[in-house]
Write a sequence for this structure.
């Protein structure tokens, strides 16, 4: 009998091309996703070395980081953005890679379209030159972000030399309170682990609160694994995974799909598999969360107050808290609910899927965006946008005073025209609240879609129950 | 990557320590989409100064840079190595290097030669007084030589880096040595989801 294995170990073992003591393992990559920002130099490197793309049929490209979310007829004003998109077009044409460019019906944020097209599948190894590739782990795939020379390596060889990461079981226990979302679980975890606590690990999310999450929720959680420093996040395959994939364009149909699904059902950690580390998080005591500072572990309840730097155990954390309060323009002891926002952003690869938009629309229909607040809803992809429009969600948003925009990374990062102005405060469903992330001098508070929508209506941080 | 066995050429003394990667290639250069052309951005803040050593005609065309300790610390940007190579450098000689920089350099075939402080200082003085002197770097034997004046200094390279340089192997080249194993793995794979997707979308 073979020793019990974790899910990670099973996937890893299935992809080893070569493993020799003292050398990195050569790991086969099933799916390589690329976008315009981290791929151009990799293609240039291939050309310089006279190499080709080994498996264009395992490489999928989309434009997301630079695309404006204005109507598609608007030309791209920034010459650098335009150039990156043109170069992606050229590279995909030259190397015969499928590309979904701006405006294509399948275009969207790379981590939204992989799962929704059904090309990200259980048991696969998936990489992308983007740290939030961990998102695809929600499907029971080993998915992680890579750098540009690794992008080139995968293009040329369809493999990567890798040191084997360690494994951590993240056990969620207890009953999830009604208004606690996957985003709150992610923030609670990062708060517990710290931004470096997951470093060197692949996290496997386990327990009833996880099995009762939708695929969208699992993606939100896996997406933010990287904010705890982890290499990847994983959720075992169950019937939720299989029903999510059934009928998607990247999977076969009929009996072929059912046979595949049967093979996926074994993608679980064995009962007595041993993890290198373990952490347990009780969700029963959670309530909606938000960040107050400039890293994603600086978390409080929406019902809470801005902390005192003196509350933190180490000197480093105390001075980090002081710096964060200064940058964020906050006073210790202030109630989060009293803090007014200028902008609300609902979008990004963390929270721009159909379920996120449904939750936000359900709250949006209860009122109007508060005066002086700019509220944007940016669907993660054209497919999400089309689905939302077929359900009439766009009408709800628009009549409540939200902007309904074209898909893209948008205000998640200051790379396209959607940016905060210096000093503006934003309730954002994205994943990073670093200084300047949403635009120079911008102040980001990470929240769930429900909190974002409620905050838009109230004009100050609020929970869904505040806008009944 | 081309094999590197023996390099010959002139050197330029930088006489600065703690040259970080932001100084080597400032961040505004990171927006480029090419891998070439970064030579123009190399040390760009310093090159605005006409008296900066790289601007002195005597040192035009030098292949080796002699720097102070801790060359290449700071951000992990690979662009620093691209910039040095694109400018025309094939080796950097210094008492110590930033780890990530040194690792990046070895992947691209830029030779990083560690000599003792006094050897670097001696070399630097020599280059100031006779800029046109020819240096030789022998990767196989680990020697920096200036035959004209009888200068010889020994350096160590990690054996893997040395093999890579001598054989012209980059990471991709090393992986492709195992091409048969990759193909063997591929022979068991089921059709890729992108084929299914393409059929579906057509
Ligand atoms: S939405 Fe944000 S985090 Fe996600 S891929 Fe785009 S820029 Fe990166």
């Amino acid at each position: 009998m073979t020793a019990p294995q974790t899910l990670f170990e099973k996937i890893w073992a299935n992809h080893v091309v070569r493993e020799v003591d003292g050398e990195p393992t050569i790991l086969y990559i099933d799916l390589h996703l690329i976008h315009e920002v981290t791929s151009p130099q990799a293609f240039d490197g291939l050309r310089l070395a006279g190499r080709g793309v080994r498996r264009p049929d395992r490489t999928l490209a989309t434009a997301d980081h630079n695309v404006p979310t204005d109507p598609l007829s608007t030309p791209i004003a920034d010459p650098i953005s335009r150039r990156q998109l043109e170069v992606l077009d050229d590279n995909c044409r030259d190397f015969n890679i499928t590309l979904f460019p701006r405006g294509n019906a399948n275009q969207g944020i790379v981590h939204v379209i992989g799962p929704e097209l059904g090309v990200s599948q259980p048991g696969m190894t998936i990489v992308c030159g983007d740290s939030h590739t961990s998102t695809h782990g929600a499907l029971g795939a080993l998915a992680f972000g890579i750098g540009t020379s690794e992008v080139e390596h995968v293009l040329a060889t369809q493999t990567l030399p890798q040191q084997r990461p360690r494994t951590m079981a993240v056990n969620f226990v207890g009953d999830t309170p009604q208004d606690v979302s996957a985003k709150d679980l992610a923030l609670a975890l990062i708060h517990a682990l710290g931004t470096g606590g997951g470093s060197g690990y692949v996290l496997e999310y386990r327990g009833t609160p996880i099995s009762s999450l939708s695929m969208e929720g699992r993606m939100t959680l896996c997406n933010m694994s990287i904010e705890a420093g982890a290499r990847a996040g994983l959720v075992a395959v169950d019937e939720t995974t299989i029903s999510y994939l059934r009928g998607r364009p990247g999977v076969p149909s009929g009996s072929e799909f059912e046979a595949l699904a049967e093979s996926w059902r074994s993608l679980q950690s064995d009962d007595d598999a041993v993890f290198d580390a373990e952490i347990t998080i009780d969700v029963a005591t959670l309530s909606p969360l938000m960040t107050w500072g400039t890293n994603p572990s600086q978390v409080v309840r929406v019902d809470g107050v801005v902390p005192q730097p003196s509350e933190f155990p180490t000197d480093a954390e105390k001075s980090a808290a002081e710096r964060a309060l200064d940058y964020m323009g906050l006073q210790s002891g202030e109630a989060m609910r009293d803090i007014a926002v200028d902008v609300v952003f609902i979008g990004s690869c963390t929270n721009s899927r159909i379920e996120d938009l449904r939750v936000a629309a359900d709250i949006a229909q209860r009122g109007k965006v508060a005066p002086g607040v700019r509220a944007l809803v940016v669907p993660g992809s054209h497919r999400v946008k089309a689905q939302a429009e077929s359900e009439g969600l766009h009408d709800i948003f628009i009549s409540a005073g939200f902007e309904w925009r074209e898909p893209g990374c948008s205000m998640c990062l200051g790379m396209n025209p959607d940016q905060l102005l210096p000093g503006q405060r934003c309730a954002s469903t994205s994943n990073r609240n670093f200084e300047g992330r949403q635009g120079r001098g911008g102040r980001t508070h990470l929240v769930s879609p429900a909190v974002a929508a409620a905050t838009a209506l109230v004009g100050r941080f609020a929970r869904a129950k505040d806008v009944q | 990557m081309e094999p590197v066995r023996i390099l010959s050429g002139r050197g330029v003394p930088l006489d600065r320590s703690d040259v970080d990667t932001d100084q080597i290639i400032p961040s505004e250069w990171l927006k480029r989409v090419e891998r070439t052309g970064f030579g123009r951005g190399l040390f760009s803040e310093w090159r605005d100064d006409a008296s900066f050593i790289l601007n002195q005609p005597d040192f035009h065309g030098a292949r080796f840079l002699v720097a102070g300790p801790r060359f290449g610390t700071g951000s992990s940007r690979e662009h620093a190595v691209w910039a040095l190579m694109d400018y025309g450098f094939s080796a950097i000689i210094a008492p110590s290097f930033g780890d990530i920089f040194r690792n990046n350099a070895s992947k691209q075939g830029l030779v990083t030669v560690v000599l003792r402080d006094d050897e670097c200082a001696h070399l630097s003085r020599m280059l100031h007084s006779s800029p046109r002197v020819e240096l030789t770097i022998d990767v196989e034997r680990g020697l920096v030589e200036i035959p004209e004046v009888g200068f010889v200094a020994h350096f160590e390279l990690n054996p893997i880096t040395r093999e890579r340089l001598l054989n012209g192997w980059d990471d991709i080249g090393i992986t492709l040595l195992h091409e048969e194993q990759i193909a063997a793995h591929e022979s068991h794979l089921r059709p890729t989801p992108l084929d299914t997707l393409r059929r579906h979308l057509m």
Notes: Chain B has a mean pLDDT of 93. The longest strand of chain B covers residues 6-9. The first helix of chain B runs from residue 21 to 24. The two ends of chain B are 40 Å apart (CA to CA).
